[in-house]
Write a structure and sequence with these properties.
Blueprint (H helix, E strand, L loop, with lengths): L2 H8 L15 E2 L4 H4 L7 E2 L3 E6 L11 H10 L3 E5 L7 H6 L7 E4 L4 H13 L3 E7 L5 H14 L3 E6 L11 E7 L4 E9 L7 E5 L12
Parallel strand pairs: 3-7, 3-8, 4-5, 4-6, 6-7
Antiparallel strand pairs: 1-2, 8-9, 9-10
Helix pairs in contact: 5-6
Length: about 220
């Protein structure tokens, strides 16, 4: 195998016509339309994903819930949520399939404290996913988090205000969501490792989890 082929498959080198061939570990998003525009066909499972949203409660968490629920059911390690803007509703999360006994919630009071908490959550080996709501985050700290996620083989999802989407970032994947129709959002790729930005998908985000045999 040539060096060029190896770099392309790892996502370190890419061309517009080969991005779908990028071989990176991923988690299915639970949305076929979204998987179709992401390298590897899902959320990168050993990297930082930034998800930008215009206002809290407009679908940013529901985009992640299918993957978070799958991890919660299949991996007995902790799932860690940091600085959620509202108190999570236990019954609703259980409805979506999250194991509440393996969900750890934490609050931090500064950017430095948040980054320390996230790095420790990634590096100790005790978590299968980390989710954080964060506004200000400098590029140096974001790079440290990306390296920590890669080293630990744990996904880190950063939920951030739309105003922060123009910041330079080492994150492997950056997406922006906007409300569309009822229970739908438009999801636009700002950056994807191994491919061009700009791809879009319309996602259905029902308020209730689909049951077996349901048409949802």
């Amino acid at each position: 195998m040539s060096l060029l082929t190896t770099l392309t498959e790892r996502g370190d080198l890419w061309s517009g016509q080969h991005w779908r061939q990028t071989q990176i570990p991923t988690l299915p998003t639970g949305q076929a339309a979204l998987d179709a525009i992401l390298p590897g066909g899902g959320w990168p499972s050993a990297a930082v994903t930034e998800l930008f949203y215009p206002a809290s409660g407009q679908g940013e968490l529901r985009v992640l819930l299918p993957a978070l629920a799958q991890l919660s059911q299949s991996d007995s390690r902790w799932q860690i949520w940091c600085n959620a803007p509202f108190r999570p509703h236990g019954s609703a999360l259980a409805h979506w399939g999250l194991r509440l006994d393996r969900l750890l919630l934490c609050q931090t009071s500064s950017e430095a404290e948040l980054c320390w908490t996230l790095e420790q959550s990634l590096s100790t080996g005790g978590s299968h996913a980390v989710v954080a709501w964060v506004d200000v985050l400098d590029s140096r700290r974001l790079r440290r988090l990306q390296l920590a996620a890669e080293k630990s083989d744990v996904p880190l999802f950063l939920l951030r205000p739309t105003a922060r989407q123009h910041q330079a970032s080492m994150a492997a994947l950056r997406l922006a969501i906007e409300p569309d129709q009822a229970e739908q959002v438009r999801c636009r790729v700002l950056k994807r490792r191994g491919g061009w930005p700009g791809a879009e998908a319309r996602l259905s985000l029902p308020l209730n989890r689909a049951r077996p045999g349901s048409s949802l």
